[in-house]
Design goal:
Blueprint lengths: L2 E8 L3 H14 L3 E8 L10 E2 L6 E10 L2 E8 L9 H9 L7 E5 L9 H8 L3 E4 L11 H11 L17 E4 L4 H18 L25 H11 L4 E4 L27 H6 L6 H9 L9 H18 L6
Parallel strand pairs: 1-2, 1-6, 2-5, 7-9
Antiparallel strand pairs: 3-4, 4-5, 6-8
Length: 320
């Protein structure tokens, strides 16, 4: 099966893009990673060459990671917060360079620890999604009721399909599931009447006031994604919290949730505060070395050692 991966980033998240790409290579992925970005290309991609690629992006550059894998950098021009731009970005790829095969979106603070073949098997079961830390939400949870009332008033009836509340950091779709992305984008567009603008999002880098009935729109892209599940009839295949290493189990893609990302984290300070290194931290440093190396060699050597010592401290200091 021919598959394509995409992500969106700006600022220092380029470190995450590199680690994600490294993990894809080690997982056996062969193909193109489309990385939409805002700002300047990262220094490690200085050798990227311009690429003529029609689409709604200001420019495109291609960067060969290894002969069988390349990153295509797409300069996006949008007023939206990038976390709210996901469905529009995926639809643009579907209408152009990623028209065929499965298309996967992954946040740039995720790395893969399972062979790529599993992901291609998974997406054949339906729209591939992962359960979030804040799951489950039962049928009459105020958040779901808020969505149901809001979208029902705007001509979009929703139907309860399960208690799982999914994370917005991963979505996998087959070509014949384009309608799911369209539902997601429509949910985001209609949401603006309540939240004011898609330039706003509740993330570690943006101030945003929770809004909607029972604050049902305080996760913007993620809420829109869950609305899309209830608004369409397409099959979905949801794996539980263990998928993103949010609980013990068979981990697929550790996700570094929270403000301090692995490339920023002071592991000793966090350990003394009762927060030992997370699975996502360990996975990031496992793949930070290459084939793309974005951090100094001393950092690549010392950070894992710091993390190992922090893990020992974590056995003594635990947050209650």
């Amino acid at each position: 099966m021919r598959s394509t991966v995409c992500t969106l980033f700006e600022g220092n998240y380029h470190h995450g893009v590199a680690a994600l790409t490294n993990s894809l290579h080690h997982a056996g992925f062969r193909g193109d990673v489309y990385a939409g970005y805002r700002g300047a290309l990262p220094a490690w991609a200085a050798g990227a060459t311009p690429l003529a690629l029609p689409g709604p992006w200001k420019s495109a550059h291609t960067f060969a990671v290894v002969p069988t894998l390349r990153i295509i950098f797409l300069a996006v021009d949008t007023p939206h917060h990038l976390t709210n731009h996901k469905p529009e970005f995926m639809l643009a790829l579907r209408g152009g360079p990623a028209a065929d095969g499965a298309l996967f979106y992954l946040d740039p603070d995720i790395v893969l620890v399972r062979p790529w073949r599993f992901f291609e098997d998974w997406v054949s079961c339906g729209v591939a999604l992962c359960e979030d830390l804040n799951s489950p939400l039962p049928e009459n949870h105020p958040r779901r009721v808020g969505w149901r009332r809001y979208y029902g008033e705007r001509g979009v009836p929703l139907r309860f399909r399960g208690c799982e509340y999914v994370n917005g950091g991963f979505v996998g779709v087959q070509p014949d599931h384009r309608a799911f992305l369209e539902y997601w984008k429509r949910a985001m567009d209609l949401m603006t009447e309540e939240i004011g603008s898609l330039s706003l999002a509740l993330t570690e880098n943006a101030r945003y006031k929770s809004t909607g009935f029972a604050d049902c729109f305080d996760r913007t892209d993620q809420d829109g994604l869950n609305v899309a599940i209830e608004g369409c009839d397409l099959p979905v295949s949801i794996i539980g919290q263990e998928a993103m290493a949010l609980k013990p189990g068979s981990w697929l893609m550790p996700h570094a949730l929270g403000a301090a990302k692995p490339w920023q984290r002071n592991y000793l300070r966090h350990a003394l505060g009762g927060e030992p290194p997370r699975p996502a931290d360990k996975a990031f440093w496992r793949f930070a070395r290459g084939p793309i190396a974005t951090l100094p060699a001393t950092t690549l050597l010392l950070k894992p050692a710091e993390m190992a010592f922090a893990a020992l401290l974590g056995r003594c200091y635990r947050r209650a």
